[in-house]
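To: structure desk
From: M.T.
Subject: fold request, one chain
Message: Could you run this one when you get a chance? Sequence is below, nothing fancy, just the single chain.
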Amino acid sequence: MLRFWLGSSSTPSPAGRKKLADQLTAKGFTVYCPTQRVKRRWSDRSKLIDQPLFSSHIFVHIEPERRDAVYFTPGFVRFLFWNKHPAVVRDAEIDTLRRWLNDFDHETITVEAISPGTKVHVQSGPLQGRDGIVLEQRGTKLELYLEDLQVKVSVDLSKTELATGL
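Reply: Done. Structure tokens follow.
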């Protein structure tokens, strides 16, 4: 059965992860390295760049018995583990990441204050259908802890509706 496995690269630079992803792809593996477009400002100019969503991490889509073949790729460090088992990411989670990064425009909107610790259900937007716990709100940014993914996500709540009081 094909699964996405979470792996770690030896370099945090985007170019290093791209090189690792290209090497794994050349070996016949399906690799996903999610990126987001961010505006970076230098002293003389501003530019939109693709920045990795997760530093030093890539997702490799392989059968469990082929995991060892990935270890011999230069730049690959190890697979990440959760509860003493390799971290496997469900296809639905990868689809959510792709949809979140590709299909939605993150415009700035005004958000009502939500207290930390409040359980919320995302009714629309890139994380639609997800339940989370509010960690912090800073202006129009809301940090959520997504229990099913075991990650903290900072979201600009553009085109997103939340239900509270779960």
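Reply (cont.): The first strand starts at residue 3 and ends at 9. Let me know if you need anything else for the meeting.
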